[in-house]
Amino acid sequence: MSDDLAITLGNCMVKGYVIAPAGYGKTHLIAMAVKAASKRQLVLTHTFAGVNSIKAKMAALKVPAALYQIDTIASWSLKLCLAYPKGSGWNIDAPSSKQWDKLYESCTGLLTNAFIRHIILCSYAGVYVDEYQDCSDLQHTLVCRLADILPCRVLGDPMQAIFDFDNGQKPVDWDVSIYPYFECLGKLETPWRWENAGAHLLGAWLKKSRERLEKGLKLDLVNDVPFSVKRIYADPDFLPQKQHTSLMKLFASDGSVIALHGGDQRFKEKTHALARMLSGKFSSIEEVEGRALHSIIKKLESSKNSKVAFLHALDFAKKCFTGVNNALTAGTKKGEVANQIKTTKYPVMLKAANLYLGDPKTKNLIAFFMELMKNPETSPYRRDLFYRFLHVLKMHIDGEGDTLIESAELYQRDMRHSGRPVRHTKLIGTTLLVKGLEYDHVIILDADSLDAKDLYVAMTRGAKSLTIIYTGNPLPA
Fold first, then answer.
1. What is residue 470's three-state secondary structure?
2. Among 46, 90, 100, 354, which residue carries the largest CB count within 10 Å?
3. In this structure, how many other beta carbons lie within 10 angstroms of the beta carbon of residue 269?
4. Measured between alpha carbons, how far is 73 from 43 in angstroms, rounded to an integer?
5. CA-CA distance, 317 to 322, in Å (whole number)?
6. Position 2 confidence tier, pLDDT thresholds 50, 70, 90
């Protein structure tokens, strides 16, 4: 079916869409469709992780590099506008979060110019847009303008439309903007993620569950539920205990585990709190924007003296590690150079702190944190945040940025291309942070708090097993 659909996509000369449920081989389909093309295709997605994923699939399927250009919608739009500043009216190299909407409007306007349309036609024979459910209305308008020039195929899953736009923009409404104006090219039908993992029953059950959720029905957690789906009932008053016990059982399991809260902002701090309670056995995932990282960098940069800087670093350490106070002397915790005495528990730790307090260089700050990481009393629980911080410090030492702030900005730019630095296999996150990613096992920590789309995204992250913790009431609530 997917091979036939790839040919259909390749032959499409209009605007078309494909419904691609989670784990059904969408990236494979794009690669096969491009491979069948005779001329260069533009492939757009939303994140650099998505770009890397598509590039990896292209390479695996030996798609000639001359047949495609892969980029994010944001990056492609920015490069086009900067290449033609007079036509676009755009000259900002690094837009802020509030400026991206204006950029998309500028790019949409630029695409109306005859000479730009000619350049686009000379550059590409068609366009694919991946993860279309994550498009904002402004991005959709831009894609439609591009579709006036080239054959356009959009692929996505309305059931995964959980992206939260900070600027008040809404995700594209398929009922209003896609179905009436785009031709249906097909729908992926095989749950390859679970077929490839040998979890055939789980894949079939998730397929049926998706159909129920699409219709606005409740999940059927009673009839024909496969053994790989575990249901754990929790009284709301004992929910934390149930979560703790369930996670500790999964900690011993082989393979990767993701524990999930909903994507709502209020759940982000819950992921960190739970990781801390578990003493770092599970590590919490950070948001891509890195607000906590930029906050500590700014505090260090603006510190008046080494004591103030060290106390900021200490506060940050406590956000990343458990047991920090136990590793330090009373004087060190006050930001003071302290003397070693007979009862000093960790002399090496004391020496590292004193070295930074006496000489607040970046290399000495790294040395302090490395000793903290090795200390038997401490355990990292926000590894993602900590490793990002270490990368920024190392970049500053290597001269990649005259200041810590410049180094952080450079790191943030690079991280969008390379992905998160943490590779821990036992993680806690929110649905927004892991959408599109795959793990061996998933545990939904508080399923009663998720709406139908968040619930579907959470349920489809695990290739081998699914654990649902809920009060026993019908889901979604």
1. strand
2. 90
3. 11
4. 9
5. 9
6. low
CA distance 214 to 208: 10
| Residue in this structure with the two tokens 């790294």, named with its chain if needed | 366
The pLDDT tens digits of the residues spanning 311-369 come to 999 999 999 999 999 999 999 999 999 999 999 999 999 999 999 999 999 999 999 99
Instruction: Specify whether the CB–CB gap between 282 and 274 falls below 8 A.
Output: yes
- Residue 96: CB partners within 8 Å, gap ≥ 6? none
- Kindly report the length of the chain: 477
Beta-bridge partner residues of 260: 429, 444
Q: Which residue type sits at 18? A: V
CA contacts within 13 A on the Cβ side of 185: 31
φ/ψ of 278, rounded to 5, equals -90, 10
Handedness of CA 335, 340, 341, 346 (dihedral sign): positive
In one-letter notation, the amino acid at residue 325 is N
Strand, helix or coil at 47?
Answer: coil
Q: Are 188 and 451 in contact (CB under 8 A)?
A: no
Q: Quick one: which of 420, 443, 423 has its CA closest to 286? A: 420
Which residues contact residue 186 at a Cβ distance below 8 angstroms, ignoring those fewer than 6 apart?
Answer: 1, 5, 8, 18, 19
Specify the 3-state DSSP secondary structure of 175. Answer: helix
What pLDDT, on a 0 to 100 scale, did the predictor assign at position 396? 97
Q: Is 285 exposed, middle or buried (0-12, 13-18, 19+ CB in 10 A)?
A: buried
Backbone angles phi and psi of 260, in degrees to 5: -125, 135
CA 331, CA 51: separation in Å to the nearest integer? 49
Task: State the sign of the Cα–Cα–Cα–Cα dihedral 363, 365, 368, 370.
Answer: negative
Strands 321-322 and 379-380: antiparallel
Structural tokens at position 361: 């260089």
CA nearest neighbour of 140 among 98, 118, 114, 173:
173
Convert 177-201 to b/e letters by CB count within 10 Å (16 or more is b): ebeeebeebbebeebbbbbebebee
The token pair that represents 414 in the structure block = 């690079």
